[in-house]
Amino acid sequence: MASKVYNVLFICTGNSARSILAEGLLNRMGHGRFHAFSAGSEPRGEVHPLALKALRDLGIATDGLRSKSWEEFARPGAPVMDFVFTVCDQAAGEVCPVWPGQPLTAHWGLPDPAAVEGSEDAKQQAFRAAAVTMKRRLELMMALPLQTLDAMAIHNEVRHIGTR
């Protein structure tokens, strides 16, 4: 019997940095158990170059990563999500579309690495820090026995992960 593949959507306002990092990381780390997507409420239309660099530095392919609207995932025929995570505080406060399938939701806020000012090294360090924090959260989520927990227990666990 095949194991369930969980669809996960990461949302940030601009869909250029944090949500892109999460999408790339989970698709690499998920080993076929998870299929990650990302989107924004007001997508910038391009992925931040330092987000792509941070992923490549971790050995993660960046082909196909793009900034897109969350409307892509709310329309008929879109993949049904099992989880939807907001990764920026602004997106967490916005009224989201109605997601087909009633996915579990949680807020996994991260500081915006794209907002860091200063040297190129400081900016790259901010993207690396965001990627490392997200990687740890994803490791915790992937360690959950999702097929044996009920929906309420899973919801509590993924919400708690975002507060660590």
Automatic annotation (TrEMBL):
Q: Which residues form the Phosphotyrosine protein phosphatase I domain?
A: 6-144
Q: Which UniProt keywords apply?
A: Arsenical resistance
Write the protein's name. Protein-tyrosine-phosphatase
Q: PANTHER family in the record, alphabetically?
A: ARSENATE REDUCTASE
Q: Can you name the source organism?
A: Roseateles aquatilis
Q: What processes does the entry annotate via GO biological process terms? A: response to arsenic-containing substance
